[in-house]
Amino acid sequence: MTEELPASKLGTKEHWDMVYERETKEYEETGDEGEIWFGEGAVDKMVDWTYQYIPPFADGSGPTVMECGCGNGTLLLSILYPTKPKYRRSVPRHSPRHFTGIDYSDLSIELSSKVEGLRRRRWERRIRSDERRKEAGEELGVDSDSDSEEESDGEDDDDENDEQVDAGTSSHTKDETTNNPPGVTWFASDLLTSTLQTLHSQSSSVPLDGWDLVLDKGTYDAIALSQEPVQSGPESSRGKLPSAVYPERVVGLVKPGGFFLITSCNFTEDEIKTRFIREGLVGRSSSTVKHPSFSFGGKTGSTVCTVAFRRV
Ligand SMILES: C[S@@+](CC[C@H](N)C(=O)[O-])C[C@H]1O[C@@H](n2cnc3c(N)ncnc32)[C@H](O)[C@@H]1O
């Protein structure tokens, strides 16, 4: 028997619309991209996992990646435009055309495409800077797994400062939307009621056989904080709690042979496995990130865990 979390406003769409309205305003005024759920460490862990198990294909044909509940888009964009020298210098990189971010809040989608413009410009500057330094015969920095890895690229810091200044000007937003149309497909949909087919009818870029990698960082945690039974979508899910329906929907979004990678703070690794392992989706490899004082509407002092599943 799995224990349900108490209902919380974090399980409602109204809450997330409010969050992204505030974050968009903040972004436009200051260039702040918004909340990094579970911190940069959790993002790094998911980026590392992806580059280890689903590296860019040499011919640029794949893989396809989708984030469930993409929020401000920062996880997806950290994979697409990696900052760690060892990933950003591995050419070719993942293709923006194969990346999709889905969230039920329209405002999250709007924010994600703006953040994409910013990240892409920063990425292009970094690549130009790498090229200049290479031409000048400079060392491009020693790749390592240490936290200070990014600091080896001093010029990047200047680029980021430039962006901060840009972000404070009114032309910033205009430039992004006019000169940086999004390459990632971002769109709004409720993942509790959507299937691959309904998502495909919303965007033809949705692969009908599913994605090679489906990501979740904090979305299942949020969904499990709603106690409102699901009312629409596939018949078999109606009347069930969101926490039970979401794993059923997710398995159908992963391509056979593909992966589902989830980071949660409200459930332990064992609880995540109990809830997600089902016919067709098996636990593959896992790792746990200790994060002793994190609280997210449910349990206080939770640990963050990252678990990977493979669709068979
Ligand atoms: C804790 S935030 C995490 C955002 C993002 N994954 C990140 O790590 O920054 C949870 C996200 O799930 C989205 N969400 C919650 N329920 C959803 C649903 N039924 N369908 C689609 N998105 C949902 C929220 O709008 C919110 O953006």
TrEMBL record:
Gene3D superfamilies: Vaccinia Virus protein VP39. One of its GO terms (cellular component) is cytoplasm. It comes from the Eukaryota. Residues 138-165 have a biased composition (Acidic residues). The keyword Transport applies. Residues 131-182 are annotated as: Disordered. It is found in: Cytoplasm. GO terms for molecular function: protein-lysine N-methyltransferase activity. Its EC number is 2.1.1.-. The keyword Transferase applies. Keywords: Cytoplasm, Methyltransferase, S-adenosyl-L-methionine, Transferase, Transport. GO terms for biological process: methylation; vesicle-mediated transport. InterPro entries: Efm4/METTL10 (IPR026635), SAM-dependent_MTases_sf (IPR029063). Belongs to the class I-like SAM-binding methyltransferase superfamily. EFM4 family. S-adenosyl-L-methionine-dependent protein-lysine N-methyltransferase that mono- and dimethylates elongation factor 1-alpha at 'Lys-316'. May play a role in intracellular transport. PANTHER family: EEF1A LYSINE METHYLTRANSFERASE 2, PROTEIN-LYSINE N-METHYLTRANSFERASE METTL10. This is Protein-lysine N-methyltransferase EFM4. It comes from Filobasidium floriforme. The gene is EFM4.
